[in-house]
């Protein structure tokens, strides 16, 4: 039990630090609506109801038809977190791509869920940016 707790603590610390994972994946903790401070994100006190940490697990361009982004959300808060697929957006060189995914996922405290969201295919060579429900952004690479 102690080993699992230490592993979870290490994973949470890595997610908070925003370490890159692989060539196309990244880890991020979107900013909260609280006023910003000069303290690093890992030193900030955790809130009871904040945005869930997010990890991009894959980015797939399926021909000229669509772009799929798979995200892993983890609820580190103490209340139920609702992740709405429509609130996840991707822009290609600043132009929003039309989303093709609807629905929401409810995460109980401590739960993790993978969610794949689909968008229209971006133009070739466009710079992609993922915007999360809490307002955080992350560049995507194909």
Short overview:
The protein is mainly β and 142 residues long.
Model description:
- The chain has 1 helix and 11 strands.
- The chain has 142 residues and is mainly beta.
- The strands form 3 sheets. Strands 1-2-3-4-9 form a 5-stranded antiparallel β-sheet. Strands 7-6-10-11 form a 4-stranded antiparallel β-sheet, with no helix packed on it. A two-stranded antiparallel ribbon has the order 5-8.
- The longest helix has 16 residues.
- The N and C termini lie far apart (38 Å).
Spell out the blueprint of helices and strands.
Layout: H1 2-17, E1 20-21, E2 25-28, E3 54-62, E4 66-74, E5 81-84, E6 89-92, E7 95-96, E8 104-107, E9 112-120, E10 128-131, E11 137-140
Antiparallel strand pairs: 1-2, 2-3, 3-4, 4-9, 5-8, 6-7, 6-10, 10-11
Order of neighbouring strands in the sheet with most strands = 1-2-3-4-9
Structural class call reads mainly beta
The overall strand count is: 11
Series of secondary-structure elements, N-terminal to C-terminal = HEEEEEEEEEEE
Q: Averaging pLDDT over every residue, what do you get?
A: 75
The helix fraction, in percent, is: 10-25%
Low-confidence stretches: 10-49
Region (Disordered): 30-52
